Amino acid sequence: MLNSGDMIPDAFLIDESGAQVKLSALLEKPLVLYFYPKDNTPGCTVEACGFRDSYEAFVEAGADVIGVSSDSEQSHARFRAKHNLPYRLMSDKGGVARRAFGVPNTWGILPGRATFVIGRDGRIIYAFNSQFTPDTHVKNALVALGGPV
Question: What are phi and psi of 18, to 5 degrees?
Answer without folding.
Answer: 90, 5
